[in-house]
Amino acid sequence: MEKVVAIYPGSFDPLTNGHVDIIRRGARLFDRIIIAVLINLEKAPLFTVPERVEIAREAFIGNANVEVDTFDGLLVDYARKRRAGVIVRGLRAVSDFEFEMQMALMNRKLNPEVETVFMMPAEPYTYVSSRLVKEVVALGGSVTKLVPELVEARLRDKKHARETLRA
Ligand code: PNS
User: Fold this and answer.
1) What is the separation of C-alpha 163 from the centre of its chain, rounded to a whole number of angstroms?
2) Which of 12, 86, 103, 106 should be mutated for ligand 1, with most atoms under 8 A from CB?
3) Is the CB of 107 within 6 Å of ligand 1?
4) Dist. CA 117 → ligand 1 center (Å)
């Protein structure tokens, strides 16, 4: 039987426990799940793409069917290149729905052979986003249990480096 390859695309700036939860669920459902970090030249990210890749690789070390890669251009072109039939996206709240529906339907228009599958993270992560995590850390708050420990440590390092630069 043909293996089902899924792509989990995103910015992952940084990886949160919400992402980790979705990836674990995806890894149980599909033969292979590829965490695909978007190379987006427009945004001003906190972590570089190589840093984000390194974090995801470290977080899923030992998980044989979880792969980490980068992509640019159209997601459906990348899916075709990787012979992936599924795009996985997490849905946290109704507020996510509108944008996710637009993306899913646009991707379907671009390539009807790729199916978007939505998954819900465990309840403790339904309010977690990379953007809020960055804001909380920048303002001195704790994100313990909301991001993997290795991400928390790297967020602390970044904050420290920025504060040292400013001093
Ligand atoms: O983590 P994010 O920022 O919500 O991820 C958004 C992402 C990477 C899934 C989306 O921006 C994307 O697929 N970009 C690739 C460009 C593309 O294919 N655009 C048309 C999709 S409708």
Assistant:
1) 27
2) 103
3) yes
4) 15
* pTM of the shown model: 0.96
| β-pair type (32-38, 5-10) | parallel
User: Six-digit token pair at 34?
Assistant: 């590829």
CA torsion through residues 67, 59, 7, 32, sign:
positive
* pLDDT tens digits, 100-159: 999 999 999 999 999 999 999 999 999 999 999 999 999 999 999 999 999 999 999 998
**The token pair that represents 129 in the structure block:** 């986003």
How many other C-beta atoms are found inside a 10 Å radius of the C-beta of residue 45?
Answer: 17
Residue 145 phi, psi (nearest 5): 75, -5
| Tokens encoding 89 | 């996206």
Q: Which of 12, 75, 82, 116 has the most ligand 1 atoms within 8 A of CB, as the residue to mutate?
A: 75
Q: How many CB atoms lie within 10 A of CB 13?
A: 23
Give CA–CA dist 112/72, Å, rounded. Answer: 20
Residue nearest atom 6 of ligand 1, based on CA coordinates? 10
pLDDT tens-digit readout, 124-140: 999 999 999 999 999 99
